[in-house]
Amino acid sequence: MLAGGCLCGSLRYETRAPPLFVHVCHCTRCQKSSGSAFTISMLIETFNVALTQGTQDDCRITGASGTRYDITRCADCGTALWGRAHGRSETLAFVRVGTLDEPDRAPPMAHIHIGTRQRWVALPRDIPCFEEMYALDQVWSPESLARFRILGS
Fold first, then answer.
1. Most CB atoms within 10 A, among 22, 25, 55, 69?
2. pTM, whole model, 2 decimals?
3. What CATH number has the domain bearing residue 143?
4. What's the total number of domains in the chain?
5. Between the CA of residue 16 and those of 20, 62, 98, what are the distances in Å?
6. 102-111 burial, b for 16+ CB within 10 Å, e for fewer?
7. What is the pLDDT along the chain (153 residues), one digit of tens a residue?
8. Backbone phi, then psi, for 34, in 5-degree steps?
């Protein structure tokens, strides 16, 4: 189980399973929404993420692929904690790894949308990198794929 929270400390959450996958997204939409060069997202079933304290405030954004996401934020400080995609991946939460109490416990497994990355960002040689998105069956573990298939996604 991993725990995390917002910047002001009023909103807390916990996860109840290991992540399905962790990726770094370099798309321009993630750059804009994070105010940084990328976002690091831990993908996990929505039912395995639980708010344990505080009040959330959701907003809607559109990703680089055109997919709409509801972003869960702290109602007090506005920290973005996780997103949920509409459509095919609605049963997944994209937890922002930087909001975890121990973010080093969810290291990246892939980099995506590297074609639009900031050129000063050095890409690792030991982690797969993709111009756009990866095919799940190419990079996810068999266990994660099995959990994902149960969701009917």
1. 25
2. 0.91
3. 3.90.1590.10
4. 1
5. 12, 28, 18
6. ebeebebbbb
7. 899 999 999 999 999 999 999 999 999 988 988 899 999 999 999 999 999 999 988 888 776 667 778 889 999 999 999 988 777 567 899 999 999 999 999 999 999 999 999 999 999 999 999 999 999 999 999 999 999 998 875
8. -95, -20
Residues 91/151, Cβ–Cβ less than 8 Å = yes
Bridge-based pairing state of the strands 39-45 and 49-53: unpaired
Domain range spanning residue 141?
Answer: 3-150
Paired sense of beta strands 21-25 and 3-5, if any: unpaired
- Tokens 């068999």 -> residue: 142
Determine contact, residues 3/14, Cβ cutoff 8 Å: yes
What lies within 8 Å, CB to CB, of 86 at 6+ separation is 67, 68, 69, 70
Beta strands in 6-96 (DSSP E): 12-15, 21-25, 39-45, 49-53, 56-62, 68-74, 80-85, 92-96
The C-alpha atoms of residue 132 and residue 7 are separated, in whole angstroms, by: 30
